[in-house]
Amino acid sequence: MRNRAHAVALHTSCRLYHLVMPLYPAALRREFGADMKDVFELQIRGACERHGFAGLARVWLGIIRDVIQSSLPDEIEWQSVLVPVLSLAGSFVLFALFFVTNGLAKSCIK
Predict the structure, then answer these.
(1) Cα separation of 4 and 26, whole Å?
(2) How many CA atoms does the CB half-sphere of 65 hold within 13 Å?
(3) Other residues' Cβ atoms within 10 Å of the Cβ of residue 16
(4) Among 30, 68, 74, 84, which residue's Cβ finds the most Cβ atoms within 10 Å?
(5) Bigger pLDDT: 48 or 103?
(6) How far apart are CA 107 and CA 110, in angstroms?
(7) pTM above the 0.70 mark?
(8) DSSP 46-98
(9) 3-state class of 1 per DSSP?
(10) How big is the CA angle at 10 (ends 9 and 13), to the nearest 5 degrees?
(11) Is 107 left (phi over 0), alpha (psi -120 to 50) or beta?
(12) What is the pLDDT of residues 21-72, one digit of tens each?
């Protein structure tokens, strides 16, 4: 069951990262987009294998921080935005984990 949960979490994370990519600057995406996706997949897979869902959450928090730093204008101090955004992101990660585990539990009951 754990392997199935990890597989679903990895697949979901890769799909979500695809949705997050437009938040990065266009020039960055054009030059490094394919590499960014590959590195994310390797990073999320390794973190999930070594640390489970805690590792997955850590990678996502890093991604959120990276998106904030790269997409906000330099004039805005991203530190003042970080706490509310991380709070929202943490809630999102917890909701996503609940959704994944709830879906797995329902599929195992059938």
Answers:
(1) 35
(2) 8
(3) 17
(4) 68
(5) 48
(6) 5
(7) no
(8) HHHHHHHHHHHHHHHHHHHHHHHHHHS-TTS-HHHHHHHHHHHHHHHHHHHHH
(9) coil
(10) 85
(11) alpha
(12) 888 888 888 999 999 999 999 999 998 888 888 888 889 888 888 887 777 6
| Alpha-carbon torsion angle 2, 17, 63, 76, nearest 10 | -150
Instruction: For residue 64, count other CB atoms closer than 10 A to its CB.
Output: 20
Alpha-carbon separation of residue 4 from 52, 80, 86, 110 (angstroms): 12, 38, 28, 15
What's the CA gap between 40 and 42, in Å, rounded? Answer: 5
